[in-house]
Amino acid sequence: MKKIVLTTALLAGVLAHAGGFRVSLQGVKQLAMAHTSAHAEDASVTFFNPAGMSFIPSKLSVAAGGFGAKSIVTYQNLSTLESYETNNPLGTPVYAAIAYKVLDNVSVGFNLSTPFGSTIEWPSDWAGREIVQRLELKAFYFQPMISFKLAPWASVGGSYIYAKGSVNWDKAVTQLGGTLNLTDDKASGSGFGIGFYFQPDEKWDISIAYRSPIDMEAKNGKVSFDISPALYPSLGLDAAGTDSFKATLPLVNEYTVGVTYKVTPKWLVSADFNYSGWDRYSQLTLDFANAPIGNQPNDPTVLVSPKNFKSTQTWRVGTQYKINDMIAARAGYYYDQSPYTDENFQAETPSFDSNVITAGLGFNIAKGFGVDVAGAIALPKSRDVKNSFNNFFGQAKAKAYYFGLGLSYNVF
Amino acid sequence: MKKILISTIAVSALFFTISCETDFDTDVSSIQVTNGEANFSKYVSLGNSLTSGFRDNALYIDGQNDSYPNIMAQQMKLAGGGAFVQPLMADNNGGLILGGTVVQATKLYIKSFTNGAPDIVNVNATPTTNVATKITGSLNNMGIPGAKSFHLITPGYGNIAGVSTGTANPYYARFSSSATSRVLDDAIAQKPTFYSLWIGNNDVLSYATTGGMGTDQKGNTNPATYGPNDISDPAVVAGSIQTILQTFKNSGVTKGVIANIPSVTSIPYFTTVPYNPLTPAALGANLSVLNASLYTTLKQALTAFGAGNRINLLSATATNPVLIKDVSLTNLSAELTLALTPSLGAPTAAAFGQIYGQARQSTPGDYILLPTKSVIGSTVSGAPASINVYGISYPLENQHVLTEAEAAKVKAAVDAYNASIKSLADSYGLAFVDANAKMNELNGLSGIQFDGVKYTAKFVTGGTFSLDGVHLTGRGYAIVANEFLKMINQKYKSTLPMVEVNKYQGVTFPK
């Protein structure tokens, strides 16, 4: 009865949040259960908590998978009665992980993931084209890690994160009668992750993890203008119409506490709490070498756009039921909150308060070899757009679907 | 136990799926645009160049298509509005010919940039729009470039024979119904159900753009005696507008919109060139030479006559004002000649006296006109070689500068016109557009933002004013159209949608 109360409370009461350009697609098993974290079944746990490696049942575990993410955002303006819809390409986040027990109480692992990214593509003549026509953000996390089993029921782990990313941003420059493209594929940054993982008894798994913030620094970005060449000299552009820029995109820190309770040997229920430090993203500063297309009175080559993101929480609940030795059925639900208010709506990273329903199946094909599928549907709430900095007003809504296919192999 | 838990999850999930509002309350595609209390089936616009779609110092097809009445008419079509026919020009270069002679030049365009500054010239083409080619039939846009308020009610303003003598307007001559017709009557003949009127600008603008070459006719209510660059008497402007409104009312047309006129000194024609454009760098070595040979001499002489504040020495650290001729100053020619004769000799002293008798340095209250930019620093033919540089050693002429005193006359006239326009709008129950406030907003530091694009009244780069510095671009006219539409909706409870300003044409840069 206590569990019923707990579950109901999670679902009905403390609805909460994540969002921004964070992509919660790092494990197919996990996604099927609302992307919860306290699952040490295979190497995919490494993204969520390096300490989880110590509780993977086998000596060597390999996991990899990929997702398809499809979203459509619609913007409409009640004043002009115009309406526009994105034509976003299918997003394809991937992950790969390996974990190996060097000693009984020491595990090492490596995780590759794409925890941040988004591609938004609006019609090139849409109302907000001065803000964005197309924006592609990508970040790869490379994480070597180590975990120590402190006791049969407790472990600690840590990872080093090397992040590599790219940005590719098209937007109109109406006053110059053309468009520009901002690109940098050499942005990088580094950070770390630490975690604790507990199995106090055979019924409970508890995961506590922290991933540090990372500043992705684009040190030598390139801005290319598609405008009249007659304007190049006065903008300080080279003969090809290009200039360089510097920018820093913050990838936020995340605290995660996850719990799994095995109700019966076949049935488990998981819940997660995430806290993401989006309040770091207070503004985006683009510092151009020469082009005076900024907005700072004392330095017209610096463009500062207020973002005013706020930190978010996400509450997740998922479950898995082993129908038999071969097949496991999974389902989950989470509520994702947008990291900004209507007044700070960002057309280049549209974000909504969303209900997300997830489901999936796991197949144990042969000894140690598993195939997992998962799907999710997000039901973002429509919202008002009231960005007075850009004088951009209207309404926005979205639809999003995710599906994933994962493989895992647990050896020895 | 298990079932209870599963069903709890299922029910909760269902509850949230249903309760979350994923769709728009109102989809824009399902919104029906309504005309409210107004009838837009036949909309006729009256006005001057701003109404015609004039820009880049010419009337041409693209500009006409981006005229604010045409922009509005497209929105009115969503609420029962009919076709909007304009007296389209023959080409996109602008300009007019009459009897084989070019009577209006082609439009301006940016040929290139030199050191970041646009090189603005007329399109090198012969106009193909012939004033004598009459446009007949239904016509909705009666905006006539150059028209003053009283011209709309002056018979014969469209008489082709009067074009060359200046008593008639070539643009109206193209579509006037007869040699004696009035613009107003031709508008009434279209049987409008709704009208817009934006007039009065030219009653003061040509005085300002010519640096005050005309006369302030305040008190003279007979426009037949006015010169082309005079300031119309406010009573003439108010009377003309009232006649127009009353005539519409008498013919049963009671619904429309009227706009006041922008303070002319909020436009780039007056605000682009600063009063103090002479940098120490530009003056170079001449700075000390000028101070020693000219400015000191003048200042000493003028000080003796109590007018020492007319000239100060040039600064080597700050930007310097230009020399101008201010006809409102007491003419000290004779005094100067007398004072300078001992040191300069009689002939030179006489020349100095004549040139600098009403000279002074410009002050922040003076407006240097946009075309004057190319005059400053140019050589004055016929002047003594040592003092023949315009604005630096030789005063700019009256037509180059709108002085503070002249600007005050302009402001007084605009204020008087606008007071009348507002009270007429109220007494005739018309929608009222405060165009003056909108232009001031545009001219302010923060400008006007629309969907991420910042618009200001800055010349070329502000995006709203065309290359003549007086008329708007398509985007500027779209901002104006939105203001009109907003006020029409407010007055007549219609729901005409606004337009996306950024969709219209801005300043065109060379390819």
From TrEMBL, chain A:
The keyword Protein biosynthesis does not apply. Its main location: membrane. It is a multi-pass membrane protein. Keywords: Cell outer membrane, Membrane, Signal, Transmembrane, Transmembrane beta strand. It is found in: Cell outer membrane. SUPFAM superfamilies: Porins (SSF56935). It comes from the Bacteria. GO terms for molecular function: long-chain fatty acid transporting porin activity. GO terms for cellular component: cell outer membrane. The keyword Signal applies. Residues 1-18 form the signal peptide. PANTHER family: OUTER MEMBRANE PROTEIN NMB0088-RELATED (PTHR35093). Belongs to the OmpP1/FadL family. This is Outer membrane protein.
From TrEMBL, chain B:
InterPro entries: GDSL, SGNH_hydro_sf. GO terms for molecular function: hydrolase activity, acting on ester bonds. SUPFAM superfamilies: SGNH hydrolase. Pfam families: Lipase_GDSL (PF00657). This is GDSL-like Lipase/Acylhydrolase. It comes from Chryseobacterium salivictor.
